[in-house]
Design a protein that fits this description.
The structure is a homodimer of 146-residue chains. With 146 residues, chain A is α+β, with helices and mostly antiparallel strands. Chain A has a three-stranded mixed β-sheet with strand order 4-3-5. In chain A, helix 1 crosses helix 2 and helix 2 crosses helix 3. Chain A is globular, with a radius of gyration of 18 Å. The interface between A and B is medium-sized, with 33 and 33 residues. Strand 5 of chain A pairs antiparallel with strand 5 of chain B. The structure holds a DNA duplex (30 and 30 nucleotides).
Chain lengths: 146, 146
DNA sequence: TTGCAAATGATAATCTTTCTCATTAATAGG
DNA sequence: CCTATTAATGAGAAAGATTATCATTTGCAA
């Protein structure tokens, strides 16, 4: 059986750095994730992974995605629709947020330092340190963009 | 069989106002919801509803909760843990948000007009009208509150 | 009060995710 | 480089949450 060849992805390196065993499947999944700039669910990740290496099972995708989330490599998102979706975790810099088009369901990412700061403040004043922010706003395209 | 007697709740009125048929079960569920100030999941709602009127099935709770959500009476929340949780929808005034204790999982509600305004602004500048905000911040209690 | 469309109850079916367990593979040490 | 050990994987079963089915019941308008 032939091993598919592709370079180690940034996420694969991250995986090794965290002391996780870098198996072929994890290498593949990490590659696929590094290559994605959207928010795939597990089914979709599995589809993409199989393209790269058919010797992979959906159970492993579930396992890997969970492992990566526990290790801060991935973040799980819920945009409705019943299945969890994943994206590469933000670095130490600013978080990013999601605007969901109420009609099309399309997900638009945005950043906003002012929002970062305000949230940090609010949480601190309540006596907590901010760990994660899960924010998605649902919006409807304005009828008359001026 | 005896009908349980209790007054129409605010949510029951809302239900009628929206032109939804006010069945005994919906009246019961609305009552239970009006009486709750937490974020019960369907199982928990079912438990509370059965207390009031045992002639109710969990299927109906699922159906009602979905109906109420579609009609803007309830909002569905995801705090992790695999099941959807529900709360009475905010009025036209300010939204409210959730701080989740990272260690205990406890949900703490808060409001913040500044945050309302900022989100509204951000979304407007992206060409959208804000429909709903889903925000929960996960925080960890500070070790040394000064 | 009656008729009918809609809602309900009980349970089957579906969908997503996790678990089980026999097999396979990664890695440290020789 | 080879081997042993320990963890990861594959395939499918199982679990958990939610939705669908269909015969029966009920709200509500006429």
């Amino acid at each position: 059986m032939k091993e598919p060849t592709f370079p180690d992805s940034p996420l694969a390196d991250l995986c090794r750095e965290r002391g996780l065993k870098l198996t072929g499947q994890r290498r593949t999944i990490a590659f696929v994730l590094s290559d994605s700039d959207d928010h795939p669910d597990v089914e979709e990740l599995y589809r993409r992974a199989v393209e790269v290496d058919p010797r992979i099972s959906i159970a492993t995708v579930y396992r890997t995605v969970r492992l990566f989330e526990e290790n801060g490599i991935l973040q799980r998102r819920d945009f409705g629709g019943g299945r969890a979706r994943y994206e590469v975790a933000d670095g130490d810099h600013g978080d990013h947020y999601h605007l969901i088009d109420a009609d099309s369901g399309k997900v638009i990412e945005f950043e906003n330092p002012e929002l970062d700061a305000l949230l940090d403040n609010i949480v601190r004043e309540m006596g907590y340190d901010l760990v994660t922010t899960r924010l998605s706003v649902v919006g409807r395209r304005k009828a008359k963009p001026r």
